[in-house]
Amino acid sequence: MSLSDFFSPINPDKFSPKQGFLTSQLGLKANFYTDRFPDLEENTYDIAIFGVKDDRGAVNNNGCALGADHFRSQFYALNEGAFTSKIIDLGNIIAGKEISDTYFAVKTVVAELIKLNVLPVIIGGGQDITYAQYMAYESLEQKVDLVVVDSKFDLDEDEHEGIATGSNSYLSKIFLHQPNYLFNFSNVGYQTYFVNQDSLKVMDKLYFDVHRLGEFLSDISLTEPIIRNANMMSFDIGAVRSADAGANINAGPNGFYGEDICRITRYAGMNDKLTSIGFYEFNPAYDRNGQTAMLLAQMVWYFVDGFYNRKQDFPLTPKSQYIIYRTSLKDGSGEMNFVKSKRSDRWWMQVPYPTGISKNERYHLVPCRYEDYNTAVNGEMPDLWWRTYQKLG
Hints:
Elements (H helix, E strand, L loop, with lengths): L6 E2 L17 H4 L1 E2 L14 E7 L13 H9 L11 E8 L4 H17 L3 E5 L5 H11 L4 E6 L20 H7 L5 E9 L6 H9 L3 E4 L11 H4 L4 E5 L21 H13 L5 E5 L10 H17 L14 E7 L6 E7 L5 E6 L10 E6 L1 H8 L5 H10 L1
Parallel strand pairs: 2-4, 3-4, 3-5, 5-10, 6-7, 6-9, 7-8, 9-10
Antiparallel strand pairs: 1-4, 11-12, 12-13, 13-14
Family: Belongs to the arginase family.
InterPro entries: Ureohydrolase, Ureohydrolase_dom_sf
Keywords: Hydrolase, Metal-binding
């Protein structure tokens, strides 16, 4: 089966201004699947954009299946930044006869693109498509660190219109799926009044990382180490406040500001580990003046900009590019090691594997902040270290 079997081609002229694209705009910089499916094995492309025209799993947000084309009208009119982009737009995955058929298509496409070292950017569709995005890693037999930007936890157990995996329940499917390839889950930006307290207890019991919106209002850079740990990310456009992104019937008055969500997506692009990203729940039926389409286009632009500014500084080799700092706990129970990149000034924490767990590695590297190092310098164990150690066991 060829990847072309899953896609319907697109006509880029449909998204261009009346006078056509300018030479500096992405509409003339990107390539498109129009009549002949591109050869993805020639190492020609870094990023593949595609839409998913299926909103059967979107709870109370019918119409978000049409989001991809509205996004394209804004995105390709943006100017290329200080980078040379190698982007291919593969068109749209049309909804299958059953929603499971759509999931299969997304899973297959994402897995194949990752194998080819091409990063998929998915424009949904409902956020339940995240489940299919995750399933791609099962076929790759790869452990996953998942980061979701959302105002709530999608852990509901009730079926949505007879569909087991809805946009309000896909996380439950991921958490319970066997075999389990999920190493860590992080939520960025939940709002407490949308969250069942029992769900918070579940997250704590599983040693997952969940972060309230209020944690980032004074300093959005606090999201960077969380995002730097992700292999895959999923954005619900409803995590942005409705004044900035109202094209989602579930949008609320509180959420991330437009400029902050763009910084978050740039952090995502700069993450050397990240191999897939999805933007979901954008509904053009509620997009007054095209504002949300423009914001989504700018989010993806910042992601691309971050991608082409990756530092490739994950602490492996050569050691001359890093500084190792050693600290001791107050009670004398042990030593903690931190690694700082000379290239980017970013920090990682070394968390040792419990005895006998890993034969090939002595420790697991976790992105952290300078503040975590200061906590250890003062003789205290950072909470991130303990949670990670528990997961490793």
